[in-house]
């Protein structure tokens, strides 16, 4: 999701900045990100990343945890 960087980082390292770069690239290509569906690996399931997705009206598939959240979930996907 990002360009390679030096160092040992987890999946969420600098995620908000990298997410802005990715969504800006899509928007520059005239691809509307509102309403897109994101099915991310569990390593990307964080409150801050979910909020970043929500700010762009991107649906974030909830994980199979014990938390109750109002996010969209499509069982078939």
Q: What's the total count of β strands?
A: 2
Main β-sheet description: 2 strands, parallel
Strand content: 5-15%
**Strand arrangement, major sheet:** 1-2
In whole angstroms, how far apart are the ends? 21 Å
Low-confidence stretches: none
Characterization of this structure:
- The protein is mostly helical and 77 residues long.
- The chain has a domain of 30 residues.
- Helix content is 30%, strand content 5%.
- It has 2 helices and 2 strands, in the order αβαβ.
- The chain has a two-stranded parallel sheet.
- The radius of gyration is 13 Å and the shape is globular.
- The model has no long low-confidence stretch (mean pLDDT 78).
Write the layout of secondary structure elements.
Blueprint: H1 15-28, E1 37-38, H2 47-55, E2 59-60
Q: What key attributes describe this structure?
A:
single chain; 77 residues; mainly alpha; two-stranded parallel sheet
Task: Provide a quick synopsis of the model.
The model has no long low-confidence stretch (mean pLDDT 78). The protein has 77 residues and is mostly helical.
């Amino acid at each position: 999701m990002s360009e390679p960087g030096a160092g040992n980082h987890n999946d969420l390292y600098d995620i908000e900045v990298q997410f802005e770069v990715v969504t800006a690239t899509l928007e520059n290509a005239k691809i509307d990100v509102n309403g897109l569906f994101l099915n991310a690996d569990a390593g990307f399931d964080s409150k801050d990343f979910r909020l970043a997705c929500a700010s762009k009206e991107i649906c974030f598939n909830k994980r199979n945890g014990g938390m109750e959240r109002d996010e969209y979930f499509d069982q078939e996907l």
